[in-house]
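Problem 12. The chain below contains 178 residues. Write out its predicted structure in token notation.
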Amino acid sequence: MRKLKNSELDRLSLNSFKAAKKTPLIIVLDNIRSLNNIGSVFRTSDAFLIEKIYLCGITATPPHKDIHKTALGSTETVDWEYVKDTLELVEKLKVEGVKICAIEQVENATMLNDFNPESHTKYALIFGNEVKGVAQKVVSASDVVIEIPQYGTKHSLNISVSCGVVIWDVYSKLKPQN
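Solution.
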């Protein structure tokens, strides 16, 4: 086996990315404090052609050097918007027919491996603050709450890791339906 050169990876140009059919997923960051986490979410969202990222509450917005450090230019490819109030955004998205999925540990959560997204449905995946998680009022307003199964001694993952795991899982379940 030989490692591929960057020129062999057949990556999309900025214009091709903007024109490409997007995965029907919206990412909502609810009060994320780490700029490196925000940048990592942008980069993962670029990798899976995510439709849009909403940055809410205290979540910082580009341009910022610490976001750029991990985003590696994906703040230019992935559409994003700042919205101050996450709950107001959730209510707006619901009116637009978007299914709201908080990623959190709650009573009666749907385990990620058991979550089966419906074809022709757009989903908003909400990821919460590094310490407090998704705000309870946002959890309560969600259509479904998805939990990432964990089997070790720790009961949480870094938000950027959680985002990568969930996006990959949902993308892989939706891909055959696109």
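Discussion. The domain at 20-148+155-177 is CATH 3.40.1280.10 (Alpha/beta knot). Students who got a different answer should revisit the alignment rule from Section 12.3.
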